Amino acid sequence: MKILIIGATGMAGSALTKLAHEHGHMVVANGRDEAKLAQLAHENPGIELLAQDAFTLTKDQLMAYDVVINAFATAPTTAYLHIDLAAHLVHELRGENMPRVAFILGAGSLKHGDHLVVDEILADESTLPWRAVPQAQLVELDLLRSVDNVNWVGFSPAQLFTAGPASDKPLHGTDDVLFNTNGESVTTSGTMAIAILAELEQPTTTRGRLTVANG
């Protein structure tokens, strides 16, 4: 496949870039920091680079790909950009015969018993500096769920999303937060990359959200 990875230099994006390249896909790494893109290309010889603001990607550009992966990340002060970028991609990719688009979402929208993880976040005053991100990504998922003419799929990590190699015993689900046998709710970037590539290579879900965690 020809895959565009938005936010390719970030934690999740770089893991996805590496894995997709290793799987033999034609990878185009998108970002705004040319120095970081150059380093990514040095680490993954043969990938293509697209130094461009993702918000300026046009329909014609996006249609050149089989898959678009949105691994965009931003600071809590601009968390609303998660919603804005999702809306932009939805606008450009509506209709039949369009590329599939995958979104990395937060854990806040996952269920934990009779409530959402975001409810726990909002109840904890210590989360104030960063809670805007899970709040925005909850809205992002709600937006996607209202769309019936875009070939989208979403992926949520566990409560802690961190850099690291893939788990050899990953846990898979849909809408409930996952915990391993030690009671930990953790997803590494390597585990997330494997889950996304597996779904893109052998699709099981259309217009739905999946979740993955380290076992």
UniProtKB/TrEMBL annotation:
Pfam families given in the database record: NAD_binding_10
Where in this chain does the record put each NAD(P)-binding domain?
7-178
- Which InterPro entries has this protein been placed in? NAD(P)-bd_dom (IPR016040), NAD(P)-bd_dom_sf (IPR036291), Polyketide_Oxido-like (IPR051606)
Instruction: List, in alphabetical order, the Gene Ontology terms for molecular function in this entry.
Output: oxidoreductase activity, acting on the CH-NH group of donors, NAD or NADP as acceptor
Coiled-coil ranges (or none) = none
Instruction: Report the protein name in the record.
Output: NAD(P)H-binding protein
